[in-house]
Amino acid sequence: MSYSIAEAARRSGLSIDTLRYYERIKLLDPPARDTAGRRAYSDDDLTWLGFLTKLRTTGMPIKSMREYASLRRHGVASAGRRKALLVEQRRSVAERIAELQTCLDVLDYKIDNYERIEQSVLGAGPRVEGISA
């Protein structure tokens, strides 16, 4: 299947400018061209764009993404280094998840505390119609 740049942008969730930028910085190989010379993205291109989007979501720096993309062009010979990049990124993601879990725990604690305060205020004050203590 072949997709115009607008359709590839829509399907990938990226802007047309981002697609051109990814091509310019060599994250994305130049797509094939149709008979009129317009970019024609393939299903493989869209799969790769989906993976790049996941890498960006993990916070992987563009520099590391570019290294990964360059290594990808070397095929299986670069599998070890590509794996190492992903292992490092996974470590970074796991650290961020742990940090966010700590933040979530603090929020839950504070929310529970305010719920106890609200319950004690409702229990000590006049009965509000429709609300039982």
UniProtKB/TrEMBL annotation:
<dbReference type="InterPro" id="IPR047057">
    <property type="entry name" value="MerR_fam"/>
</dbReference>
<dbReference type="InterPro" id="IPR000551">
    <property type="entry name" value="MerR-type_HTH_dom"/>
</dbReference>
<dbReference type="Pfam" id="PF13411">
    <property type="entry name" value="MerR_1"/>
</dbReference>
<keyword id="KW-0238">DNA-binding</keyword>
<protein>
    <submittedName>
        <fullName>MerR family transcriptional regulator</fullName>
    </submittedName>
</protein>
<dbReference type="InterPro" id="IPR009061">
    <property type="entry name" value="DNA-bd_dom_put_sf"/>
</dbReference>
<feature type="domain" description="HTH merR-type">
    <location>
        <begin position="1"/>
        <end position="71"/>
    </location>
</feature>
